[in-house]
């Protein structure tokens, strides 16, 4: 087996995927059987600078290089080979946000991530204008808000893109974007697989009085669908990616994609009536739609799969961050008692306590809002835990409540799709670090969605593996082979999964918690209004 892998590495019968997540950059090298050969990662955190959540360019490049270098070192250690080429490469990253550049390729303002809830006015104006939901996270909302704010950089814009689009441009020289990532920049026309032409014209008309030298279409990246080649690694790009300069240029790149698209690929959820839930700092659910929705909902993003099928996306800004903070507190206590904490064991023990809890969490209430939450209309982050004297305050209920609240905002949006729009779901596949602990996360999500939830053996691979699969699809697909068929018949043919059906008491318990959650939003708003941010000053 090792000999086969060595041969695949030497011949370049491999695909490399690198994804920039909110807390980790991960590089995954796969062989032609779609198995992971080697991986590397780099931990990072977003920063709040001048009122905007951002990552600086230095961290972006350092993280890219470190993740690649760690993966390359693993290849050398395991197989005794210096990595000089791969068959194909793909980059993926957090969707949305705002990266605007001038004609010299200089970043005009620090990267504004999806996490910023600063574009409310712009998002509302554009939603009304287009009669199409434009969420605050979307790149076009960031651009229009900058215009409304009369920011000085706007007239100088020559190109705007997402984080994945930026990395791809840096390494290939091509201003390209995958259709899934593009659908979080600006609305897509599913018949043309391009930006919606009439809405582009509406936007240009909206800002015509400003007299800018640019038109919208001229500053957006070109849209590609999965399977198309979107550039090759340049000599300069190869030197950036591999600091040791062993990597050779000329490697083909697939279109850069967003983390939503790679999540769909990693969970084999690109076919109609399938869906997936991706859990991390934020949480989103993607349902591949059979028909258009009957109305415009601010809670529902309309995006696409990497091959251009329409998707209803519910994206909540907050998920695991507050839960992780509480787990960190428990770890501190454990270590203060003189014990050495194994993070995986700590996570497993505490999460499993939730299975012993009262179905509704014992009357406890929590809002894990480290940042503002678009679905509930809360503009700033104020993590909050509340109970009444009558609440059953114990560890199982405490843990269950924090798991419930991690998916509560998501459930509000999902209920619109399933209860108002009668969207049919045959299966939901879940992925993210939470599901490394068996059963618990699945049971909670099944209760929230009231549908069976599966976790596949590949789910832990995540988006970096997903974009590596898209890079492999570009090179290895049969003529006219759809992405759905490629995934079903090749990638996931022998994949194993565990499905958990919703438990009726869990479903009722979650519904009871949701009543408490929606009623208590006034408490969360009061915390935003009355708890100052700069208490250190």
UniProtKB/TrEMBL annotation:
State whether keyword Transferase applies: yes
Q: What class of enzyme is it?
A: transferase
The record's listing under Gene3D superfamilies reads: 3.30.420.40
Domain Carbohydrate kinase FGGY N-terminal intervals: 16-240
The domain of life for this entry's organism is Bacteria
Residues annotated as domain Carbohydrate kinase FGGY C-terminal: 276-474
Q: Identify a single GO molecular function assigned to this protein.
A: kinase activity
Q: Could you tell me the keywords of this UniProt record?
A: Kinase, Transferase
Q: Do you know which PANTHER family this protein is assigned to?
A: SUGAR KINASE, XYLULOSE KINASE
Q: Name it.
A: ATPase
Q: Which organism is it from?
A: Paenibacillus polymyxa (Bacillus polymyxa)
Q: What is the lineage of its organism?
A: Bacteria, Bacillati, Bacillota, Bacilli, Bacillales
């Amino acid at each position: 087996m090792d000999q086969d892998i060595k041969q695949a590495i030497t011949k370049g019968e491999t695909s490399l995927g690198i994804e920039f997540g909110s807390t980790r950059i991960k590089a995954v090298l796969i062989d032609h059987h779609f198995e992971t050969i080697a991986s590397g990662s780099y931990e990072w955190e977003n920063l709040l600078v001048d009122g905007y959540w951002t990552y600086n360019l230095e961290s972006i490049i350092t993280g890219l290089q470190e993740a690649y270098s760690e993966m390359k070192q693993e290849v050398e250690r395991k197989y005794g080979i210096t990595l000089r080429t791969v068959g194909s490469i793909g980059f993926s990253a957090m969707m949305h946000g705002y990266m605007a550049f001038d004609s010299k390729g200089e970043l005009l303002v620090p990267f504004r991530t999806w996490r910023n809830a600063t574009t409310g006015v712009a998002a509302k104006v554009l939603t009304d204008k287009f009669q199409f939901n434009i969420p605050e996270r979307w790149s076009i909302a960031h651009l229009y808000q900058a215009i409304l704010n009369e920011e000085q950089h706007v007239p100088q814009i020559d190109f705007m893109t997402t984080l994945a689009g930026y990395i791809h441009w840096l390494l290939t020289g091509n201003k390209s974007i995958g259709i899934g990532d593009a659908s979080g920049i600006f609305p897509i026309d599913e018949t043309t697989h391009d930006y919606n032409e009439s809405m582009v014209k509406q936007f240009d008309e909206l800002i015509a009085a400003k007299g800018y030298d640019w038109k919208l279409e001229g500053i957006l990246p070109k849209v590609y669908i999965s399977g198309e080649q979107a550039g090759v690694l340049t000599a300069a790009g190869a030197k950036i990616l591999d600091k040791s300069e062993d990597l050779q240029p000329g490697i083909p790149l697939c279109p850069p994609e967003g983390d939503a698209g790679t999540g769909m690929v990693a969970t084999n959820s690109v076919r109609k009536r399938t869906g997936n839930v991706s859990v991390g700092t934020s949480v989103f659910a993607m349902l591949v739609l059979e028909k258009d929705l009957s109305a415009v909902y601010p809670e529902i993003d309309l995006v696409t799969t990497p091959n251009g099928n329409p998707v209803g996306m519910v994206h909540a800004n907050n998920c695991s961050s507050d839960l992780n903070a509480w787990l960190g507190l428990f770890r501190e206590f454990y270590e203060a008692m003189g014990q050495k904490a194994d993070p995986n064991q700590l996570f497993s023990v505490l999460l499993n306590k939730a299975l012993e809890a009262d179905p509704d969490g014992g009357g406890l209430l929590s809002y894990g809002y480290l940042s503002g939450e678009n679905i509930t209309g809360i503009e700033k982050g104020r993590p909050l835990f509340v109970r009444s004297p009558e609440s059953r305050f114990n560890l199982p209920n405490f843990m269950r409540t924090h798991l419930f609240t991690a998916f509560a905002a998501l459930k509000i949006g999902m209920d619109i799709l399933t209860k108002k729009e009668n969207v049919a779901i045959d299966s939901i596949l879940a992925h993210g670090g939470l599901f490394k602990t068996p059963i618990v996360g699945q049971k909670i999500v099944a209760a929230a969605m009231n549908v069976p939830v599966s976790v596949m053996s590949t789910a832990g691979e995540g988006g970096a593996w997903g974009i590596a699969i898209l890079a492999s699809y570009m090179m290895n697909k049969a003529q006219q082979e759809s992405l759905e068929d490629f995934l079903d018949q090749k990638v996931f043919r022998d994949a194993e999964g565990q499905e958990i059906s919703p438990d009726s008491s869990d479903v009722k318990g979650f519904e009871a918690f949701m009543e408490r959650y929606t009623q208590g939003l006034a408490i969360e708003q009061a915390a935003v209004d009355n708890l100052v941010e700069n208490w250190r000053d």
